Amino acid sequence: MKPTDPGEFIASLNAGVLANQMGKALSDVAANVIEHSKKGKVVLTLDLSQIGDSHQVKVAHKLEFTTPTKRGSKREDLATETPFFVTEKGLQLFADNPTGQLFNKQDAPVTTRD
After folding, report:
1. Is 87 within the bounds of a domain?
2. pLDDT for res 89
3. pLDDT for the residue numbered 102
4. Is the pLDDT score of 103 beyond 60?
5. In which domain, by residue range, is 76 found?
6. What's the burial of 44, exposed, middle or buried (CB within 10 Å: 0-12/13-18/19+)?
7. Other Cβ atoms within 10 Å of 13 Cβ, number
């Protein structure tokens, strides 16, 4: 199996919304680290599980971040899931030919009506 492209993978999570949320979180946390001279934290957690007996996995992703404030910190987390196909090209949002196995002539022949 070819390695999954991490940039493309993260851009695919939650239809690109997670990448935007991560960018905003990184910028906000970094800005507050500078402003308050305290540590901040951004964590992305990925949990993968198989979907039934298919060649698909469910990727549960959780973005957690802690932003320093003047008198403490504030914490937020965002969680959702995205299904992926496991292919020879790595994890892909869509299969190359997702309907290729449907209506195969050998498996489901169609006869004409007389």
Report:
1. yes
2. 85
3. 55
4. no
5. 6-92
6. middle
7. 22
